[in-house]
Design brief:
Length: 413
């Protein structure tokens, strides 16, 4: 497994079973009669394996953490997609990319989290060779989609803020970029999907401790892992660091040439909208300052998403780098660190909607509307308060032993 590697069963076997006592008490048993290294019956041997793979206390804690991520991630990312779908004003270029990121996160949580957490805890792949290829391939594709989406967002924002006159961001271009993102991600994960297969490591006929692993050489595995670290972590975040540094300079420093160009562009757009009116200059200045503040808030939110992604994926990439370059030894400490790094990767898929809720007022409002069952009446609907902002809110009222929904109009202030 490339992005979320697990420890080979043979290594675990040596490090965690070394306290078990070799059974040689029976005088009738000789080394040639034994079918396993503990010289016990197959039934006892399988019982020992079942005891070994049964979750320990800290593994139950790990399972609870994954369950929390599973629920929060599915609900949160579904809300992101529903919010943009319901609110036409939110169908911006940046939000198209955010929805694409939410789809990738939803996919990895729904399809990949359950089987891989079971694999992490039991060191056993129970789902066969086809699922071995499919699940890990989709996981790599979703990670590629996530990091490339964040990269495309940063480049799009860099052009829009730092070079607004040289590139026009449109919805059609965003959709084309999203198709390109998926195509690149599909191709990046394809080599591993071809060579993944299941492998049994026990002398008895059992599914226990079956691994889902590569069938190519260790050298090929090392080269591919380092390639993924470079393409899906180092290079994208180097580019994103540059773009967001430039964006920060423009939005928070008005005295540099880039900011003047941006302000001139915004002023021209605002002036076109309100030209010919009294006080146009003052209104233009106020409107443009509002746009700059809005872009600052959006940039802060996107930078928070990028920082969280980099922090959550840093441990797993660091462990991979040390494992395939310095020969990181397998110890109980590194095993725990590896399990926690896997959880952090999944946690990142659940944290993005939380960031949107905290840092973006529109997403927060749509999330709240979804949970409070708010709906909007169309403008041509007859209503007793024609000057009101017609909004239908669901109120739970106890009437004749049943809960019913009542609607009321909220008068605009």
């Amino acid at each position: 497994m490339s992005i979320l590697p697990t420890d080979p069963p043979s290594i675990i076997y040596e490090t965690r079973w070394d306290n078990w006592t070799y059974n040689n008490s029976s005088a009738n048993n000789t080394k040639s009669d034994c079918t396993n290294e503990y010289c016990v019956s197959d039934e006892d041997y399988l019982a020992m394996i079942e005891e070994y793979i049964f979750p320990s206390t800290y593994e139950w804690i790990l399972i609870s953490l994954h369950l929390t991520v599973f629920v929060v991630g599915l609900v949160g990312n579904a809300l992101v997609c529903v919010s943009v779908y319901r609110n036409h004003s939110m169908r911006t270029v940046t939000n198209y990319f955010i929805v694409n990121l939410a789809v990738a996160d939803f996919m990895v949580i729904l399809i990949c989290l359950p089987p891989t957490v079971l694999w992490d805890v039991t060191k056993t792949w129970f789902f066969g060779r086809i699922t071995c290829k499919l699940v890990l391939y989709l996981q790599n594709v979703s990670v590629g989609v996530s990091v490339l989406t964040l990269t495309f967002i940063s480049v799009d924002r860099w052009y829009a803020i730092c070079h607004p006159l040289s590139f026009k961001s449109t919805a059609s271009r965003a959709k084309t970029s999203i198709l390109l993102i998926w195509l690149i991600s599909v191709l990046i994960g394809l080599p591993e999907a071809i060579v993944l297969d299941t492998r049994r490591s026990l002398p008895v006929e059992t599914t226990y401790l079956t691994d889902c692993t590569h069938t190519w050489s260790e050298t090929s595995t090392r080269v591919y892992q380092l390639f993924l670290i470079l393409v899906l972590y180092v290079a994208p975040f180097t580019l994103m660091a540059f773009t967001y540094y430039q964006i920060t300079r423009v939005l928070w420093n008005k005295n540099i040439p880039g900011a003047s160009e941006t302000n001139h562009h915004l002023s021209r757009v605002c002036g076109n909208k309100i030209g010919g009116r009294m006080g146009a200059v003052r209104t233009t200045s106020t409107s443009c300052e509002g746009q700059i503040r809005s872009r600052r808030k959006a940039s802060k939110m996107l930078m928070a998403v990028v920082v969280m992604f980099s922090l959550c994926y840093l441990p797993v990439h660091l462990i991979n780098l040390l494992r395939y370059t310095a020969g990181l030894p397998q110890t109980p400490a590194t095993t725990v660190a590896s399990l926690l790094s896997h959880w952090l990767c999944y946690a990142n898929s659940a944290v993005n909607p939380i960031i949107y809720n905290i840092m973006n007022g529109k997403f927060r409002k749509e999330f709240k509307n979804t949970f409070t069952c708010q709906c909007h009446i169309s403008a041509n609907t007859q209503a007793p308060c024609p000057t009101a902002t017609r909004e239908c809110m669901s109120w739970r009222t106890f009437l004749n032993g049943h809960y019913q929904s009542l609607c009321r109009c909220l008068v605009a202030v």
